[in-house]
Structure formats: C-alpha cells, structure tokens
Amino acid sequence: MERILIVDDDSGIRSELVSIVSSPGREIIEASDGSEALQVLESEMFDLILSDVRMPGMDGFELLAEIRQRWTNLPVIIITAFASTDTAVQALRGGAYDYITKPFSIDDIRNIVSHALEANRLFNEVSYLKGRLGERYSMDNIIGQCPAMQKVFDTIMRVAKAPCNILITGESGTGKDLAAQAIHEYSSRSQNHLVTIDCGSIPEGLLESELFGHVKGAFTGAVSEKEGLVQSANGGTIFLDEIGDMPLSLQVKLLRLIQNRHVQKVGSTKREQVDVRILAATNANLAEKVRNKQFREDLFYRLNVVEIHLPPLRSRGGDVLLLMSYFLKRYSEALGREVCKVDESVKRAFGKYPWPGNVRELENAVERAVTLCDGSLIRLEDIPGNIAQWQNESGAVSGTLSERVDHFEKQCLIGAMEAEEFHAAGAAERLGISLATLYRKLKKFDIPVASTGIVEVERSNTGQTQFTRGLKR
Ligand SMILES: Nc1ncnc2c1ncn2[C@@H]1O[C@H](COP(=O)(O)OP(=O)(O)OP(=O)(O)O)[C@@H](O)[C@H]1O
Q1: Which residue ranges in the chain fall short of pLDDT 50?
Q2: What is the pLDDT of residues 73-91, one digit of tens each?
Q3: The Response regulatory domain covers which part of the protein (predicted)?
Q4: CA gyration radius for the chain?
C-alpha cells in the first residue's frame, strides 16, 4: 500500500488532488497546513508528500526544510501558484523531488506522482538490498525520532569506527541487540564476524569453554579440541549480552583478554593472540553490582569506555506510534495481509500504555493484531486486553483539580522511578527536584525505593499500579 500525504489549506484543492492521485493500492491522507502535516508524519509513515507553498502558519518551504532534516529520503512535490522560476528553483534547491504549477494538468500530476513513487520504491529497494549485502542490519532498522534516540544514533555513528569498548545499557526490549549490530555494521570490522554470546543463558560451567575454547580431555566430555567464540570473532566484534550475569571467576579472564588481547583454552597453558572489539550489554544496574561486589570494578571501567543508553519506550513520546506504523507495514508484508489502518482507540491505547516490555512488547502486540484482525482495520479487540484498557486512562481520571493533579504527579514519579530502576537519586535528577522533595512525594504516594529491595511494577487492566518488593529479579 502506497501512502501519500496532501498538504494544502484550501480544502477544495485538497479534494481535487485526492481525486486525481487516488488509485487502488494507494491511501491518501490530508493535512491543512505544515504543522498538521508534521504531526501526522511523526506518527505515520508515508511514501510521498504533495504540499502547497502558501499556507498560513508553517508554509510549504518551511515544511520541506523540516522534512529534509528529519525524513531525509522522503520525496516532496511542491505545488506553486504561478509558473515562477524563482519559486521552482527554491523548491528544487530546498530538496523537493519536483514541482507542479497551478493551474495544474491532471496528466502532469499523475505522471510526476507515479515517477516520485517509483523513485522512492527503487530507493527503498536498493537500501534494503545494500543492507542485506553488507549483512542483515543497518541503522535503518532502528526506528526513532525522539531526541534521546537521535542522541543514540549520533553516538553510534561517532564511536562505531573508534576501537573502544562500549557498554550498551537499557531495559529489556529497548533495542540493545540492534544497537550492537549497528555499531558492528558501521565499524571497520564489518567484513568480519559479529559473535553474540548471551552470558545469562549459558550455564556457568560451560561459559568459559564456550568463550575461550578447550583442549581435548580438558574435562569429561571434551573429546576433541574446540575453538572458543572469542577466537571465531577474530578481526571482528564480540557482543557479550547480559554481561551482569557473568560469574566473577570469568570476569577475571575477560579482563585479561581486554588488557593483553590473548585467550587461553580451558586445559591449555598456551596463550593465543586475538584481535576483537568488545561490546557488552546489560539491563541490570552494573554500578550497583560493583558496589555490591558482584561485578569487578576494573572490568566495569574497561567495558564502560563509552556508554550508550537506550531509553525505555514509555519516555520516547511519538516514537510509539511511529514504531507501530513501522511494524504494521513490516508484518502486513510478511504475513501477506493488506492491513493499513489503525482505529483511533487503538492509537490512544498505544500512546498511553507504559510498555514495560518496551519495543519487543509493542512489536508482539502489532504482529498479533495483524494476524488476528479481520479486514484492513486494526480494532481494539485485536490488541491484548491489558493494552486496550488504556484507551480510556485519562477519561478514568475524574474528581477535583487537585485529585487530577495528584494522579498526574504520581504517574510522573512512577515513570521516573521505573526508568531509574527505583533509585531515588537518579529519579530526582531526572525530575529536576531535590532528593528530599522526592522522598516526601514518594512517601505521599506510597511508592517504594530500591533500597527496600528489588521493586517490580505490575499494572492491572484498569491502569492501577502495584509494587512488589523482592530480593531477586
Ligand atoms: N528502535 C527500534 N526500531 C525497530 N525495532 C526495534 C527497535 N528497538 C527494538 N526493536 C525490536 O524489538 C525487539 C527487541 O529488541 P532487542 O532484542 O534489540 O532488545 P534488547 O534490549 O537487546 O532486549 P534484551 O535485553 O531482552 O536482550 C527486536 O525484535 C528488535 O528488532
């Protein structure tokens, strides 16, 4: 399905354009000025924009400049009132794909629109194939427009080519794995392997021989010599996922690898040189583990030369709806469905739900909805009940002004505490208030802090929040 956005303050011209460019397999959306167009662009994906120049508020040229900055490859056709060479030149210099002058001929518009869509389709195909050739991943796979994600992309681009080790932090499902793939892909090591090891899922006894290999007879069952994963990544990158779960005994050996660039197989006295770049990821608070002596401080500093933090999805604002559109397109294509519209109630629920499972949870919800939905529209009944309940979240807040303010304040506090894994100092900084004020507010709303144990948050279908304190996650 091709999607076109028509931007014009004159509703008569918009309708005329809609009827000219409409055809089966195309969805046309309208916006009455530049700002409205930007709002739509922030939450939905398009293949082409047709915009008038003269509009009240943000005009067509300002909109074009904004689109060129934020959606670099999205084609824009500018519609100008008179055949003025200056306006046409300004449009093309500003990065427009082409321009159309009023009064327009139906055939001209149809031709230019078909060419622009075809050029866009070819561009996407080439980028996709390039991505496939240079392995499977590129930054194009990581969707995000909010400032925090833009900062992540900037940092990835700046550090990918440097030789330093990088620690990627963030809650589960925020895209740490994707970030590691992008770093490797943009590094000078991309021609060699990226080897991923999930330190949390390999039994402690096996992890050492998996990482460093073993010689024949090193332990029962070691019937032949085996190369470790670190060596198989020689010349490339090794990604140690869930590094916080690495046993202390192995942390010493990893430190030796970082400092001396050699490995020693289990059962061998021989040291073998390797050249690997190390990326590590964790969803635990490693600094806290260092304080609790569960993680070596020297290793922490060696790994944490640069930290890339992936923010929780609930703090990424409009990215939720953008990711929703992205997965919708991806799963509609993958499952051979023509699902292209999402009911407003679903968008409301997605926008308000706090996404404790982050992007992974959102991706699963969209995949499920595309699979279940009957026809081309995703309705509330196609998404999981615990998410659907949130469409009326704000409607549920009633009462006096002070009760509503309290509700809002409590949600902000819970969000900040969750983002900081219930450590008060970080949450106070995030909210721009003193620690003493934060403690007073936490007490008022009965919100726990991490010093009372690990805190798990559970939200009921009605949006109520419950905290469970425990010793282990
Ligand atoms: N910004 C994003 N754009 C598109 N897809 C994303 C994005 N972030 C995450 N995903 C998708 O969400 C899923 C989870 O991402 P990923 O495995 O990278 O998270 P993670 O932080 O490594 O999780 P865990 O800590 O559980 O290993 C994957 O399918 C991934 O492709």
Answers
A1: 132-138, 395-396, 461-462, 471-473
A2: 889 999 887 666 777 788 8
A3: 3-117
A4: 26
If one counts every other C-beta atom within 10 angstroms of the C-beta of residue 444, the result is 12
How high is the pLDDT of residue 225? 84
Q: How far is the CA of 371 from the centre of ligand 1 (A)?
A: 20
Out of 152, 174, 242, 331, give the residue to mutate to test ligand 1, the one with the largest number of ligand atoms within 8 Å of its CB.
Answer: 174
Q: How far is the CA of 170 from the centre of ligand 1 (A)?
A: 10
For the CA of 198, the nearest atom of ligand 1: 27
Separation of CA 38 and ligand 1 centre (Å): 26
How far is Cα 214 from Cα 200, in angstroms, rounded to an integer?
A: 20
Ligand 1 atom closest to the Cα of residue 319 is 1
* Alpha carbons 419 and 438: distance in angstroms, whole number: 15
pTM value is 0.62
Residue 416 CA to ligand 1 center (angstroms) comes to 21
Q: In degrees to the nearest 10, what's the CA dihedral of 436, 442, 447, 450?
A: -10
The predicted-structure confidence for 95-117, as pLDDT tens digits, reads as follows: 888 888 888 888 989 999 999 99
